[in-house]
Amino acid sequence: MSSNPVVLTLQEPVSFLLNEVETHCHLVALFFSSSSITLLPSLRGRRGYVQALREKADVEVARLLAQRKKNSRYHAQVTGMHALAMALEMLTKHCFDCVREGTLSASYPHPAGDEAKKLVKRIRRALRLVKVGLADNRRRTGIKLGRRTHKLLASYNDLQSKTLQAKATLSDEQLQASILSNLGIKRLIEQLGVVGDALIKADLGQVATLDNYPHLLDSATNLNYHLRDLKVRRLALTRSGSAIAAITHKDQSGNNVLAVYKEGDRAKIEEEVAGVNHWRSIDPKLAPSVLSQQGNSDEQVSLLIEHIPGQTLEALLLNGDQDGTQAALKALFKTLNQTWKASLTPETCNANFMAQLQKRISDSRKVHPEFFKEEERICGYVSRGFDELVQDVAKQETLWRAPFSVLTHGDFNVDNLIYDDAEKRVYFIDLHRAAYFDYVQDLSVLMVSIYRLQVLSGDTRTQMMDSAKAVYRFGQRFAKRQQDETFELRLAAGLARSFATSTRFIFDKKLASRMHLRARYLLHTLANITPEQAQTFTLPLKELYVE
CB neighbours of 361 closer than 8 A, spacing ≥ 6? Predict the structure, then answer.
């Protein structure tokens, strides 16, 4: 940090916060040796100063990050220091809790006061590591702090055991106060891990933590680099919680990505690896290869994935790149046509779009409860409620089986399709839901993911609507060649499902309302369709994709 004079201005409030946490720890240790309830007002009186220091850090961070690129190393350093300031403030709150909980009943000697005092002093010594490593050794200090945290937690368990052994000599109130006071110490220790994370993030980037540091170290080794020569910047955080980061060389352009690092739930990561293998078995160039896979727990796993150059379809659409979008769609349709024919199996399937809708719609109800009235009244006409419409369509849907199955993506959103203009081809990413299924599922998801892009007017919006229509026409041609007679009906059901459930991601009431009304329109149409009408049904594309 010393090499960056601008960021040095953040070290002042952080250093003062460190001093204040040490003072708080000293007062907590004093409480365990004296049991004096007068220490509680002393801690309470220091709150204003701590808050002022944290707010000073907030103001400085806002100044330093104004008009700065989010993915830069500078941004990572500043946000890491800000996270450190907030973690230190939380330490002072846990110190206060230790004393407050211990004085809930009248002042009394803690049954394991000496051990508690020693443990708090060890916490205070651990914090001195931060002082030493704040300027130049943030990552190394963070790792040391993580190791100290594990040892301190083991000592906490011993403290709690000794406290419980003395329960026969304590009243219920005293036992409760002792246990809760111990819990305050545990939270102090756990917060040291948060401080360690903040130090590592300030050095490597926001994706790096104490838990995944060994994974990142292994990833660097697999790339034939040392981690100190690399930087890690966040690319995305998926709705499933998986963190995605780009690994680049510190001395090269940030656009020169060596590989993509992804971490998340073990089951989802393993599903993604299986999905990648499925698609690569059809065409090795369809999906990025998995370079390595690591895991240090039953829950969390990380992947090192080949970096694919190019832009997502989402970026092309949002940037209004008409030529790029048309080229991407042309390459996409060619790829889908080839892969669907190559993977086609005669096994029929039913996507059960209404069952999918019912499973996911609860989140949309929470975000937009006003959309889900039991019935709608317009000029005296009473429309069925949303749930009743879904149930009616579900009954109709049993007759609309897909006549075959193909390998589908499963999460075919615009941000999961990458177009490489140099190679004139598309790649698929985030393949954890890949399966043999109804191809209409992918088409409907893609058409709605285009619609929900939050550009609501102008030429760019018009281009988006044209792109969604192009997806429909491609699907229509494929269905005709395969003699798929229920394509239009299934696509309408799939669009209704995606329009309705996708409102959970849209806070803008205007756009969300448009999407929900389109879902209701489709549901109402399908719920009332007769067998004769079903035979000649065509998707009302003009009504759906004209703003």
Answer: 500, 501
Determine the Cα–Cα distance for residues 542 and 533; give it in Å rounded to an integer: 19
Is 510 exposed, middle or buried (CB count within 10 Å of its CB: 0-12, 13-18, 19+)?
A: exposed
Specify whether the CB–CB gap between 352 and 412 falls below 8 A: no
C-alpha to C-alpha distance for 40 and 38, rounded to whole angstroms: 5
pLDDT in tens, 369-405: 999 877 666 566 667 889 999 999 999 999 999 999 9
Question: Which residues fall within 8 angstroms of residue 285, CB to CB, at 6 or more apart?
Answer: 425, 427
**Backbone dihedral angles phi then psi of residue 486, each to the nearest 5 degrees:** -105, 15
Q: Are strands 257-265 and 243-249 parallel, antiparallel or unpaired?
A: antiparallel
pLDDT at residue 13 greater than cutoff 70: yes
Q: How many CB atoms lie within 10 A of CB 2?
A: 10
**Is residue 208 helix, strand or coil?**
coil
Tokens of 284: 């090795």
What end-to-end distance do the CA atoms of the chain give, in Å? Answer: 52
Helix %, strand %, coil % of the chain (to 5)? 65, 10, 25
- Global pTM reads 0.69
Burial of 358 (0-12, 13-18, 19+ CB in 10 A): middle
Q: Are the beta carbons of 137 and 3 closer than 8 angstroms?
A: no
What are 116's two structure tokens?
């508690």
Output the DSSP codes for 465-522. HHHHHHHHHHHHHHHHHTT-TTHHHHHHHHHHHHHHHGGGG---HHHHHHHHHHHHHH
